[in-house]
Amino acid sequence: MGTEAMTRHPGRARLVLRSALFWFGLAGSTVVFALASPLLLPLDWHGRFRVMSQWSRFNAWWLQRTCRLRYRVTGREHLTPQAAVLMCKHQSAWETLVLQRFIPPQVWVLKRELMRIPFFGWGMALMDPIAVDRRAGRRAMAQMLTQGLDRLGRGLWVVVFPEGTRTRPGERVRYKLGGAVLAARSGRPVIPVAHNAGLYWPKGSFLKYPGTVDVEIGPPIPTQGREPGEIMAEVAAWIEARTDALCGLTPDPSPATAPGALERDTAAE
Questions:
Q1: 85 in Cβ contact with 190 (< 8 Å)
Q2: Which of 74, 76, 226, 240 has the fewest other C-beta atoms within 10 Å?
Q3: Domain boundaries defined on the chain
Q4: Is the pLDDT of residue 3 over 60?
Q5: What are the tens digits of pLDDT across the range 189-232?
Q6: In what order do the strands lie in the sheet with 190-195?
């Protein structure tokens, strides 16, 4: 765990209490929003997004209040005016909660099984995610391409976690090509995102540690005329290098993370 998370957290009993309070609020808000979601059906997609995104706004605020876990973002200038494919490091549930706070209107590529989770899946279904049946083999890729091109054409960003699973800081898994295939087929750039949330919200952990998650949005990676494998190799290289630096696993040469260069904390927005 990073130095800040190790040295600034309170005693274990207080950690457990704060984490329990957060989970209670998260569960309660999920039930409330899910039960209210049928009332949103008459609205268009953007109207539903504005309402449902208040769930992430509340829980980002609640995470700060209960667990003292904030975040700060650099690289917002790399978010292109046109909808693109965003590929993000996947270390915990934190990014699935907070990405909605600083990425334009978006849909996620996810496992179809998640739609069957009571309450959480019901609310998610309302937002037209790209739900893929991983057991479908090649048909899964066709599903993702069809739905992904539709969402991009509607002006919605497509968020992909290319590892397909959560990983611990320093852990490596093979990046899946689906997001790169969609980017190549659409010609839209890939926006890579690195962060160090795994230091404070560890994979599979009940406890949440106080501190500040650093998020870095990278420059657009062009896709037109390129092969998916070439695109993904560049994406993975950038994400892994920047994630290692943000997690303190390698020296960080980036001036973007120098003192005073970070944008204001946005957890309380």
A1: yes
A2: 76
A3: 3-257
A4: no
A5: 999 999 999 999 999 899 999 999 999 999 999 999 999 999 99
A6: 69-74, 211-217, 190-195, 85-88, 157-160, 106-111, 130-132
Most confident of 18-22, 97-101, 264-268: 18-22
Domain 3-257 listed as CATH 1.10.287: no
At what angle are helices 138-153 and 178-186 packed, to 10 degrees? Answer: 50
Distance CA(47)–CA(39), nearest Å, equals: 12
pTM exceeding the 0.90 threshold for the entire prediction? no
- 36-90 per-position pLDDT tens digit: 888 898 999 999 999 999 999 999 999 999 999 999 999 999 999 999 999 999 9
Phi, psi of 109, deg, nearest 5: -90, 125
In Å, how far from its chain's centre is CA 214? Answer: 13
State the first-to-last Cα distance of the chain, in angstroms, to the nearest integer.
27
